[in-house]
Write a structure and sequence with these properties.
Shape: globular
Mean pLDDT: 96
Number of helices: 6
Low-confidence stretches: none
Radius of gyration: 16 Å
Strand content: 15-25%
Length: 209
């Protein structure tokens, strides 16, 4: 595991690399507006995917690196993502653009422009909690590349059954909230919830070629 600072038009970003021994893909994946790369789903992917030929680049957006509490507007998030792209694509391998929550929206919005091989959308915020009329489905449906959505069954930003039909695959993590946390009364453990997520990504990434 190594970390490097990457200058972008939005400020300095940080990439923490979790390399595969014999990589065939790079997964560049970022955090949401309310947390960082220590999120359980991102940590789980970084721990599991390298053994399956996927180098994981955990990307901290410039606002997090700068110690700010609030995420900037979407255009600034997109600028930060564009800025790190030469570093993640410089491995000479196909790059899957990924993120959780707001980071998933960034990945969808910029996928075609940046030449992403595919998009991994974790906890895609389909709408603000309690505001289903404020749909962001257009961003997801417009990714333009193969897309996997992994969504908690109890995510207030959009439950799996609320998602429209489209050219993407959706995997549900039962009982999971927006951070894939499951209540103690759930029929699955927290460890199992994370394993459902990582297993789905491993299978999907293998099929990408």
């Amino acid at each position: 595991m190594t970390a490097e600072i990457i200058p972008t038009d939005a400020g300095d970003a940080r990439i923490t690399w979790h390399p595969a021994d014999e990589p065939r893909l790079v997964l560049a994946v970022s955090h949401g507006a309310g947390g960082g790369v220590e999120a359980r789903d991102l940590r789980g992917l970084a721990a599991v995917l390298p053994a399956h030929g996927v180098t994981v680049a955990l990307v901290e957006q410039p606002w997090r690196v700068a110690g700010k509490k609030l995420a900037p507007p979407p255009k600034t998030l997109d600028a930060g993502w564009r800025g790190i792209w030469p570093a993640v694509s410089g491995q000479g391998l196909p790059v899957v653009s990924g993120g959780r929550s707001a980071g998933a929206r960034v990945a969808c919005r910029t996928a075609v422009e940046l030449g992403a091989h595919a998009v991994l959308a974790l906890s895609f915020p389909l709408h603000p909690p309690g505001r289903p009329e404020k749909s962001r489905a257009g961003e997801l449906l417009g990714s333009g590349v193969p897309t996997l959505v992994v969504q908690g069954g109890n995510d207030p930003f959009g439950k799996p059954e609320e998602f429209p039909d489209g050219a993407f695959r959706l995997v549900e993590v039962p009982y999971g909230d927006h951070g894939f946390a499951v209540p103690k009364r759930a029929e699955i453990t927290q460890e199992r919830a994370v394993a459902i997520l990582t297993d789905a990504v491993v299978e999907w990434a293998a099929a990408l070629g």
